[in-house]
Amino acid sequence: MNETIIAPADHKVRGLTRRGLLSRAIAAGALCVVGTGFVAAPDAAWAVETTTLKPETMATLIQMARDIYPHDRIADRFYAVAVKGYDDPEQAALIEEGVSALDVVAKSQGFDSYLAAGWEKDRVVMLRMIEHSPFFQRVRAGLVTGLYNQKEIWPLFGYEGESYSQGGYINRGFNDIDWL
Questions:
Q1: How far apart are CA 122 and CA 156, in angstroms?
Q2: By CB atoms within 10 Å of each CB, which of 78, 86, 154, 170 scores lowest?
Q3: Contact partners, residue 43, CB within 8 Å, separation at least 6
Q4: Residue 3 clears pLDDT 50, i.e. is over it
C-alpha cells in the first residue's frame, strides 16, 4: 500500500519538524491529515504543493495515477509530477467533483474513500465503475504524457529517448533483433 500524508501549507508550524511529521505518518500507516497545502510521502523526500485542489484530492489523484498506470519500479514522486497539472483553477471543479464521485463509489463498495481501499484490485474495480466519466477520461489521457514524458524514468523502461539527433534508429540497433 502506498502511504501518503498531508502536511500543512503554513511553514511556521511550531513544535513539529519535518522528521517528526514523517515519523508520525509512518507510525499511523495510512493517510494522515495534518493540515492543508502539501502532499508528501512518508518514506521518501518529496512533496507536492497544492494551490487550488484540496490535498486529499491530490493524494487521490496520485493513487489513481498509480492504479491506472501501475509500475512497481516507478516512485510515487513521478506520479505526483504527472498529476500536478490538475492543480489548476480551470480544471478544479471537474477534478474535485470527480474525486467526490469516486469516493461515493468507494462508499458503495464498503470503504470510507478511494484512498481507504488498501488493495489495488479493489481500487481498480472502482475505477472501472467510473471509466466512462469525463473526469476519468481527462485524468487517464493526461497521464499518458504527464508520466511517460519524464526523462528521468525513461531508463527504467529501457527507452533511450528520441533518435533523430543521433542519426535515427536504423543505425542504432533497429535491425539487431536476433530472436526472430
A1: 27
A2: 170
A3: 3, 26
A4: no
